[in-house]
């Protein structure tokens, strides 16, 4: 029997996205965001939701661009730090010793040490309530060769992405391979 938990912000899995932006002065910033995911196939697009009070909110509004950086589990502390500190008060890159790299396609930095990056231009802004949803068209996906598998696809076991459990505020690693999507169900 299922127990009602009420209306809450719970969904599993929740990704750990590190959003890269520049402020008005061109200073790079990064923020940990868990409210997000793919939202359109054509054009390829991703949505993230932020509170107006965040420094990144103003940066995206100003620059109309952002990057989505996918950290591996080896950078869990740095990824968490990006969600603790405010870029308006300190240089998060200096503290974490990670490297901001200027995107060739979007007016935003990406993180050199993170294995997977999506470069995005802002296409839609939707006021929802406490959060504003930013939808970005994915202009390019950059991946370290070390996380690529057969045929040039991302290999989840090589990427080692992080997941977030919103109800208990905890990070997890990705589990085991279960089978090919849109294929294993054909066995029924």
Automatic annotation (TrEMBL):
One of its GO terms (molecular function) is oxidoreductase activity, acting on the CH-NH group of donors, NAD or NADP as acceptor. Coiled coil: none annotated. Keywords: Flavoprotein. It comes from the Bacteria. The keyword Transferase does not apply. InterPro entries: Flavin_Rdtase-like_dom, Flavoredoxin, Split_barrel_FMN-bd. Residues 9-157 form the Flavin reductase like domain. The keyword Flavoprotein applies. Its cofactor is FMN. It holds the Pfam family Flavin_Reduct. SMART domains: Flavin_Reduct. Gene3D superfamilies: Electron Transport, Fmn-binding Protein, Chain A (2.30.110.10). Belongs to the flavoredoxin family. This is Flavoredoxin. It comes from Candidatus Jettenia caeni.
